[in-house]
Amino acid sequence: MSTNIPELSTEQKLLLRLYEALRDQLRGPDVRRINRGDDGQPTDRRAVRTAVVAEAMEADAQAPPVEEEA
Amino acid sequence: MFVQLARLMQKEEHLVRGGGAVRRAAGEGFGPLALHPRQVADLLETAWLDVQNCAIGVDQDWAVPGVGLPTWCAGGCGTWIDNAPAYFDLIHRQRVPGIRIPCRFDHLIYAYLIENTRIYEVMMRVLSEFVHGERLGVLQDPLAQVWAATTEALFYAPQDPLGISGLVTWVRPDPRASRRNAYWRMFGVPLVHNGPRDEPYPFHRPSASNTAFVSTLEEFMREVWRGIENANNQVGPKSTDDAAIATLAQRLGSMLRDRRQAGTLAREEFVHVATMAWFHLTVMGNSPIVRELRAVADTPEGRLRKMAQHVGLPVPVVAENFFELAPLMSRLLIMIEARAFDITANAPLLYLPGPIRDDMMMIISNWSQATGRDMKARKVVTTSRRPVAVVSAPSGLRAAATLAPV
């Protein structure tokens, strides 16, 4: 908080806590956990994508060079 | 209600019964969508009982009420529910040490904003395609099939009038018109889109309605924004007006409470919010039906738009703003209705750094985009040499008419 923000009163602090509690109560699910591995555990979609891209790049690197037509 | 239940089922995934598919759906955050229609109907009854328990006894001494209940429920209508399903255990109150939290579901504004995205019409068209033909293919995923069955049975068919969701009767045969009537009474505005034939949707507009709600709310937002602008001012003029913020909060709260006397609209709010929460949850992530329809996207609006394209129905251009606003406005209005900001001393919570200010900034930004009216600009008041009776603030009706053209 900025230094010029006045100290909150007890009632204000209570209201803030109530608001945060209300927000938590009304919160929805975490729908980012949608991908799972074969073991049923959630997987990190970004990590999977990174791994796929890395695998593709490695495959590209190991592929024989394409000969240009004369 | 279903959104909160989805989170609880996800959190308590190990407790969820019903086989691997249901548990897996629960873990993904779509638990309620995988349940049998009968279970979902029971859940609605159970949740309503829980709301009553809160309103009747547990939290009466706390400033934030549950919801006002119809007087005939005051002694408890628990006889409606004899066979509460095991999922009842999941709908428990989330306690915070030192604070008593009422069991509360979203405010009616949540249903209004979600329905403004046209999601109810889009889902009806989607279901229609699946039950009448194979233009969209055949649902392969069992969870998508369950979703279709539950959605059709619970949200597009009349329910038992002795149950909580049985709001369709000979007196009010059209659920769309019933919802519009509730929105009109509470907020003085119709939905931003018309009916299926793109004609103004007919519904009963009683005189006892809060037609000044939108203009008062916008004035409130402008005052709060002024506070945000000046929050860090240490020198120079400071135009923040805490008294004005408190007065406007009082006015808004009073309007909303007026419509709830003796529990009026409590049941309607519960059912309408639950209905829209079901559809919101459907597009909140890449749920089974979203995947089946090849409508995978990053946002609820993106998923809805792709689904709408399949059935040839336009979605409002500001649907994304409505999705953003729904939960934010819901908790703001719950707090306003509970008189949280009625005193001048509490007004700074709305604009000083903190969670409420963060939400207010999102609300002001999204509302400005959704309505096309800049809440960060000062209101322009036209004056005349002669006193006139015209007020520059838009009426609720006119404001609603310009909320967002489809």
Written account of the structure:
The complex is a heterodimer of chains A (70) and B (406). Helices cover 50% and strands 0% of the residues of chain A. With 70 residues, chain A is mainly alpha-helical. The longest helix of chain A has 18 residues, at 45-62. The radius of gyration of chain A is 26 Å and the shape is rod-shaped. In chain A, 9% of the residues are buried. Residues 33-47 of chain A have low confidence and may be disordered. Chain B has 15 helices and no strands. Chain B has helices spanning 2-11, 19-28, 37-58, 108-115, 119-132, 142-155, 175-187, 213-230, 242-258, 266-284, 288-292, 300-311, 319-337, 355-371, 396-401. In chain B, helix 4 packs across helix 10 (266-284), helix 5 packs across helix 12 and helix 13 crosses helix 14 (355-371). The model of chain B is unreliable at 56-102 and 387-402 (pLDDT under 50). Chain A binds chain B through residues 1-2, 4-6, 8-9, 11-12, 14-34, 36, 40, 42, and chain B through 3-4, 6-7, 9-10, 24, 27-31, 63-64, 93-94, 96, 98-99, 101, 104-106, 231-232, 234, 280-281, 284-286, 327, 330-331, 334-335, 340, 345-346, 348-349, 352-356, 359.
Key attributes of the depicted protein:
heterodimer; A: mainly alpha; B: 406 residues; mainly alpha; globular
